[in-house]
Specification:
CATH architecture: Alpha-Beta Barrel
Shape: globular
Largest sheet: 8 strands, parallel, barrel
Radius of gyration: 17 Å
Number of strands: 12
Number of domains: 1
CATH superfamily: Aldolase class I
CATH topology: TIM Barrel
Oligomer: single chain
Order of helices and strands: EHEHHEHEHEEEHEHEHEEEH
Helix content: 25-40%
Number of helices: 9
């Protein structure tokens, strides 16, 4: 059964990682902390990286340090060509990342089950992003998340998203609802929102309720408490959360925001009696 976690994504160097560890130790947190590292076909093969990506040659060292600190490495992988995935994942493993203990988040449109089976055989726990985005906004994330098979977060349908999960239920470990795709679009967690209806569709389906739920989208220090409280109300002890843009200033990781994000999350978990 997947475990519940809180994640800080787009960490890019050992200094940031060390500072996060210092915060975690000083505040005596005990919840599982996942550190998300962004990699892409270009960063792996062309040495291209940005402020949200570590240089690929540093990934193995970052993974080792992450595990030494007691955190979990998650690989967030993006490509425009599905044919590159297996070869790129082999290079990730060869860099020193241990697939059995490193969840893989695929920031691509839902892959076909046969390809996911091959990824699973490599040992990676799979975080599967369903095809939902803010299609009406020019800031809706990568262009691929605006295609005809993608559901709009405001007026889309739940059934295609549940079908995507059902087709892959025996292969994946987590399902992720993230309409933001790095654009800081805040989650709508009203009871009739697509986000909540999707989660209910997972946990109330006996064929799917073994899967972990992950939510992302505009989660930041000022709203993580309220969002975590709402998610735990709807899905008690079933939810993980991830932040990326919400802890950045001028597109750089802001460690003060990371600290406040983790503190506010911890406060809610303590109030609800959860670790």
């Amino acid at each position: 059964m997947p475990f519940n976690y809180v994640s800080v994504s787009a960490v890019s160097d050992k200094y940031q990682l060390a500072r996060i560890n210092a915060i975690y130790q000083k505040e005596k947190f005990s919840f599982p902390l996942v550190i998300g590292y962004q990699v892409s076909n270009k960063s792996i093969n062309q040495g291209v990286n940005n402020s949200r990506q570590p240089p690929f040659k540093k990934l193995g060292d970052l993974n080792k340090r992450t595990r030494d600190y007691g955190f979990i490495t998650a690989i967030h992988y993006y490509t425009k060509d599905a044919q590159t995935i297996l070869g790129d994942l082999e290079k990730i493993v060869n860099s020193g990342v241990h697939p059995m203990v490193s969840p893989l988040q695929l920031n691509t449109l839902p892959l076909q089950p046969n390809l996911l089976i091959e990824i699973k055989r490599m040992g990676f726990p799979i975080i599967f992003k369903v095809a939902v985005s803010n299609k009406q906004s020019p800031e809706g994330g990568y262009a691929i998340w605006k295609g005809e098979n993608v559901q709009d977060v405001s007026n889309g349908e739940i059934s295609p998203l549940i079908s995507q999960v059902d087709e892959r239920k025996s292969i994946i470990d987590y399902v992720m609802f993230d309409p933001s795709h790095g654009t800081n679009l805040e989650l709508n967690l009203d009871e009739d929102s697509l986000a909540v209806k999707f989660g209910k569709g997972i946990v109330e389906n006996k064929k799917l309720n073994h899967l972990g739920l992950v939510y992302a989208g505009g989660i930041k220090p000022t709203n993580v408490g309220a969002l975590t409280k709402s998610l735990n109300f709807f899905f008690p002890e079933r939810v993980s959360i991830d932040t990326e843009s919400g802890v950045r200033t001028n597109d750089k990781l802001d460690l003060e925001l990371v600290k406040n994000y983790l503190l506010e999350y911890s406060k809610v978990m303590k109030k609800t009696g959860m670790k």
